[in-house]
Write a structure and sequence with these properties.
Elements lengths: L3 E6 L4 E3 L7 E3 L36 E2 L7 E3 L3 E2 L3 E7 L5 E6 L2 E6 L5 E7 L5 E9 L4 E2 L3 E7 L12 E4 L20 E6 L12 E19 L12 E7 L15 E6 L7 E19 L6 E6 L1 E5 L12
Parallel strand pairs: 1-10, 4-12, 6-13
Antiparallel strand pairs: 1-2, 3-9, 5-7, 7-10, 8-9, 8-11, 11-13, 14-16, 15-20, 16-19, 16-21, 17-18, 17-19
């Protein structure tokens, strides 16, 4: 049989779409009362039956029983959605209690001993729950702790570990360090460039990355060495894309490449932008001007990341 499926709102555990076997919902945590039992719907502290002379709780007195294992709980550690699914199994139990956010709900289990809940979660929030099985004799199992974090979906870095081509550089090593995902080494490009009339975006160095297949791109991130006075960042730059398998070097006047985005006065700090999605097999970054002075344009880059759009699988609830 299917598990009992219930939609639960943690704000007071309001019930939407409950089955006929409607669980008990409490607006505040259940409090310990004399006799070792806890408050529940339709009861009062005076209704509790104290333990007998041997100290054994009566069936009306919920108590933690070491021989009753905690429920088997299945829930994600994180979710990009506004809710998540919690499944719990406790064969032989009468109810499964879910507590969190100052609220407690007791949910009757199905014939197979399980429940399934869809629990809302706010953007960026963390939900902490305790899940406990309650048996017909009043015994409570050990509790299972569940923590779920709502996280926005992270786009994939399509450039990681891919083939890199570039114009000549003044540094040693391979330009492949800019796609190794480590951020610990910088690759340097430098060229002679006298701007007789001041700041301009004319001559450039370039780096091109083969994504390996045609992909949808939607973001660019360029990282630099951690220097507060760093001046060798991309102040004037442009990003181009090509859908060809083997295009020539990227250039503004080459029909094999199309302009994606450009910036002529980029501020200092990590370059991190998104743009309208488009298709590309190759991406090319043209580096025109740094923020330094002198007759050379010099760029030191630790990592170049090309992101696709964030993709979120559809939410699958209790079925």
């Amino acid at each position: 049989m299917r598990e009992l499926a219930i939609v639960v709102a943690l704000c007071g555990f309001a019930c939407a779409g409950c089955t006929e076997a409607n669980p008990s919902y409490l607006g505040s945590p259940q409090a310990d009362v004399p006799g070792g039992r806890r408050d529940g719907p339709g009861t009062s502290p005076e209704a509790g039956v104290p333990p007998d002379d041997r100290g054994v709780p009566t069936p009306d007195t919920p108590a933690t029983c070491p021989d009753r294992a905690a429920p088997q709980v299945n829930a994600p550690q994180s979710t990009p959605h506004d809710r998540f699914v919690l499944r719990a199994q406790a064969p032989g139990a009468k109810e499964i209690e879910v507590a969190g956010g100052g609220n407690v709900a007791k949910l009757p289990v199905s014939a197979s001993g399980g429940i399934c809940l869809e629990i809302p979660i706010a953007k960026g929030a963390t939900v902490n729950l305790l899940v406990t099985a309650i048996f017909g004799d009043g015994c409570r199992s050990a509790s299972e702790t569940v923590t779920v974090v709502q996280q926005e979906p992270q786009p994939k870095n399509l450039a990681l570990g891919k083939r890199v081509m570039s114009s000549s550089s003044s540094g040693s090593g391979s330009p492949a360090v800019v796609v190794d995902g480590l951020y610990d080494k910088a690759f340097e490009w430098s060229f002679f460039d006298i701007d007789a009339l001041g700041y301009s975006c004319d001559n450039y160095a370039w780096v091109a990355i083969d994504l390996g297949a045609e992909e949808t791109i939607a973001g660019l991130k360029v990282s630099y060495p951690p220097d507060p006075n760093f001046a060798h960042y991309l102040r004037c730059w442009a990003l181009y894309a090509s859908t060809r398998n083997n295009p020539p070097a990227p250039a503004a006047n080459n029909q094999a490449w199309s302009l994606v985005v450009e910036q002529k006065n980029q501020p200092a700090g990590t370059l991190d932008i998104t743009f309208a999605p488009r298709r590309a097999r190759w991406v090319g970054v043209l580096m025109y001007e740094d923020a330094g002075s002198g007759v050379n344009e010099t760029f030191q880059v630790t990592e170049i990341e090309i992101f696709g759009p964030a993709v979120v699988a559809p939410f699958v609830g209790c079925q």
